Amino acid sequence: MGDMDPHIFAVAEEAYKQMARNHKNQSIIVSGESGAGKTVSARYAMRYFAVVSKSGSKTRVEDKVLASNPITEAIGNAKTTRNDNSSRFGKYTEISFDRKYRIIGANMRTYLLEKSRVVFQAENERNYHIFYQICSCADSPAFKNLRLRNADKFNYTCMGGDINIEGVNDKKDLEETRQTFSLLGLKEDFQSDVFKILAAILHLGNVEIKNLDLYIFQLSDPHLAVFCELLGVSAEGLVRWLCHRRIVLVAETVVKPVPKDRAINARDALAKHIYAHLFDCIINRINTALQVPGKQHAFIGVLDIYGFETFDINSFEQFCINYANEKLQQQFNLHVFKLEQEEYMKEDIPWTLIDFYDNQPVIDLIEAKMGILDLLDEECLFPQGTDQSWLQKLYNYLQASPMFEKPRLSNGAFVIQHFADKVEYQCRGFLEKNRDALYEELVDMMRSSKVIKSLPVYLLYQNAAISKSVKVKPARPSVKPANKHLRTSVGDKFRSSLSLLMETLNATTPHYVRCIKPNDEKLPFEYDSRRVVQQLRACGVLETIRISAQSYPSRWTYVEFYSRYSILMSHVEADLNDKKQTCKNVLQRLIHDSNQYKFGRTKIFFRAGQVAYLEKLRLDRLRGACVTIQKHARGWSQRRKYLALRKAAIILQQYVRGKRTIRKTVTAATLKQGWAALVIQRHWRGYLLRQVYQVVRLATITIQAFTRGWIARKRYKKMIKEHKALVIQKYARAWLARRRFQTMRRLVLNVQLSYRVQQLRKKIDEQVTVLRDKFYYETQVEGLKLKMDHLENENSKLQNLFQEKSNVNENICQEVSRLSSENLVCHCTFYSIRRGSCATCKQKNRVHKSYLNFFITFIVSQTARQKPASTIPKDYLGMLEYKREDEPRLIENIILDLKLKGVAVNMIPTLPAYILFMCIRHADYLNDDAKLKSLMNAIIGGVKKSHQKDLEFLSFWLSNTHQLLNCLKQYSGEEEFLKQSTPRQKKNCLQNFDLSEHRQILSDLAIQIYHRFISVMHKTLTPTIVPGMLEHESLQGISSMKPTGFRKRSNSFYEESETYTISSILQHLTVFHSTMSHHGLDQGLIKQVIKQLFYLVAAITLNNIMLRKDMCSCRKGMQIRCNISYLEEWLKEKELQSSNAMDTLEPLAQAAWLLQVNKSTDEDAKEIIEKCCELSPVQIVKILNSYTPIDDFEKRVTSSFVRKVQSLLQDHEGSAQLMLDADYRFQVTFPFCTSTQALELLQVPNSLHLDFLNRI
């Protein structure tokens, strides 16, 4: 690297090699004035690392690292008088490498952003590039909502005058910035929020300042409205706290207006803080995007930091920049001196302490206790502190320091003697910039902004969010603030971050890049030596040269010295094998003063000027050797030319002499003979060649003829074969078409025949139903006739009784008439003998009265005794009275010995349930607990004993048990069961006992009866399912097409049994349904029973399909679907569609569809996966593997198609069982239905032999 011109790639390569070789972290420190090329040099260094250490991963971290540069330049660079793209902040980029030294991530730290540039730019300068970029795209649809205009319309972007930079396209730069945002993974929402905040800052700068009463800012200002709209804050609150300040006193809080200049300062401070926090947010998001999972093995840091600056007016920013350069120069001096010392110790060279400039006093002046920064922070704590009072403190405390001076002609400045030059700083603005304060009320306003809240840097607005940088011990202990809640000043933050940077640099191996600016006019090929020397002095290069010149600045290894200066050695010295001793001998011969050089272990050290003397000697020796070489080369060249000319002359002489000799010896006759011989030779050779050509041509034509004939015959034979094949194909296709047509016609005829048969069956079933109804009505008529005969007998008895009563009444009437006549006689006698004795009259009167009363009493008693009770209407309570000893007779007659064919049972199927409940009501009415429990236990025991395997008996008692359970619920008195009851039914509720436990027992008993009922139907229906659904051919013509390779099963269970069809299944289902309907079973229970039976049909049928290959064909699928349609028609006919019974047939229907569908392409496989959702993956694969074509029109399922379906079924969850459980039972529920039967109107028929029951 030392033999070549300085190049940034050489420095980057050296850093990368040392990191890989020494396993130590490296740093590249790039410094220089503004415009010297620091940013470009740092960019090229990172580009070198990205190229030589590609990660090889899909994340392309190195591209993201390079992509961060356009963003940071857009938000942190601006045009100045010295540079069109000046970095207005310091940046330290830490590039992380893994163990293979490939980039795995990066991290960026920034220092001292120039916030004042947001609100003020000097003449011929610009604000940050990003503002001009968004203004250039103001007409773009994406920026319409920002209400931007040209950059010369905003105060914050037109202060410097010219808003354009020659050769720079701001619109194109914004597109690049947005592309890098997207490359780093920053989404459109984040970019939109960033542009909103930038536009809001521009609008805030255009808010007009007017002295109108107490409010300086107008609420009607359009720019103020746009600012509040973009950030989502209140305009009234913003205007209030820009124009007022809150002062918190001990006892009260005072809000006072502020003057115009302070309002302007508050507006500008708000703009600066918003931009600074936005800058930190973007840097934070970039660091997040550059962080890639992985452990860091080593890193290389690239520091792009401002160089030493001195202007006509130097302020707080130049003070911090020069303070940073003082620290970096100290680190550079210590590094150079340390390298020199290590080099001398390594080579065993005697050395003495080298005197070099130490800038520690200047650093102490700035950062030590009671130093410039310490006094500045102390003055910032005072509310009334000013720049002038702080400057006076500097004069008082630091006047004795030799590095601090007071200007002679100014009372508002101070001078510091830096390592590069004296710099005069103007104290105006130091306190304000160090405080960097913003009113707490404005901070609260920004907290309420939705746009700022969406940024992660929102936490920076918290008061407690004080900088948490690493604590670094300064040169002298600083004074700790008394209040821990005080804000950290800008100077303190910068000092802490600078100390952390110095710790990082000291822990790495530094490499220095000093960028020198050739001129200040930005002109190419112009070199200003005075400015270059000034920059070399400012960056410490001259001081480094001076330190190196005091010792041995030049050094060569023995091998390098021997190789370069071997030309100065004599032959005797060069012949020595010991090169080290040869070098010593040569130096002692050439340089007589031994103090001008020293011999080390591996190197030779020279004083200043000695290498130049050796180079002069070497140059002289080379010049002499060159002259000698040139002399010999020119002589050799001349001799070569002379020999060439001499050789050419000799050849010419030989040719001329030969010609002369030929002319003398050769005659004309000799020449003619020679010419004739040549002509003869020519013709003979031509003849021979023609003969050979003719033979070859004839042979070639013969071969071609035979070859073409063979090819023609071969082509002819091929055409004959193709023609024959076409004829065979034509006849074969015609035969296949005719066979396919005949097959399809046969299938269509079979379908038509099946449909017609189905219609005929429906008509037959309707006629059977009519006949059954007619039989049912005849049975009812017979029962009514019996009942009428019974009623006629009762009526005759009542008429006889009435006749007897009529005779009694006639006797009574006769007796009354007789007594009346006697009474009249008595009255006559009484009047006739009135004049007789009174005693006799009174006695007769008493006798008459006593006789009259006796007859009246006798008549009434006789009438009451002989008149029947039925003639007096009664109000029955719907209860049946029985004696305790009659309870076994009740259970035996109503449960055990009950005949289901009786008239009473046919009239009201659930009559036993009502009779039993009326007996339960009477026991509850009597409040007889023992009688009630005995009756309930007897009922439950009787129903259990009556369990039989007879279908009708189970159906009858399932209906009565359900009805008894409903009665117990309906008359329990619970609100949920009384909603549809009549007022009389509500009045008849149970009063004394809670029968919920008996209801539970009765419900369990009903479940047992239900399962026994289902089992009986299963046993009856099972033998008909396989023959009816699979084996019987309801579509005629399919039975003749059996799959080849299968023989009839001789051991089939159904071989010798009765032949069953789908009609057999439907007949069984019809019998089951009519039995349940005849016995009054609830419609909800009937639907559950039918659903269970349909599941049995589907399970048994599907299981047989899985086990029998002869059932896996397209025609069998058609048969199954036809049978399923029969079952569906039966459900519609019985109005049972709502029972969800067809859902249980869905797996069977899908299996039938799978047998019929095409099974060859990927689309077929996807359709199978979508349609066969009720079949498990195991069942689908089993059906595909078992599929067997019946004829040539069907194709077998290929193994590749089966594997394709299996791959698609991997993500589908399903049962791993192949067979369905035919014994599975759905959960049964007993629905509650309110009974409309009035218990008080029920009569107990005599046919039940329950004459011991009395209606109450």
TrEMBL record:
Keyword Repeat among UniProt keywords: yes
Region (Actin-binding): 498-520
Myosin motor domain mapped to chain residues: 1-619
Residue ranges that the Swiss-Prot or TrEMBL entry lists as coiled coil: 781-811
Any one Gene Ontology BP term: actin filament organization
Gene Ontology terms: cellular component: cytoplasm; membrane; myosin complex
InterPro entries for this protein: Dilute_dom (IPR002710), IQ_motif_EF-hand-BS (IPR000048), Kinesin_motor_dom_sf (IPR036961), Myo5c_CBD (IPR037991), Myosin_head_motor_dom-like (IPR001609), MYSc_Myo5 (IPR036103), P-loop_NTPase (IPR027417)
Record keywords: Actin-binding, ATP-binding, Calmodulin-binding, Coiled coil, Motor protein, Myosin, Nucleotide-binding, Repeat
The Dilute domain, residue ranges: 933-1211
Protein known as: Myosin VC
Gene: MYO5C
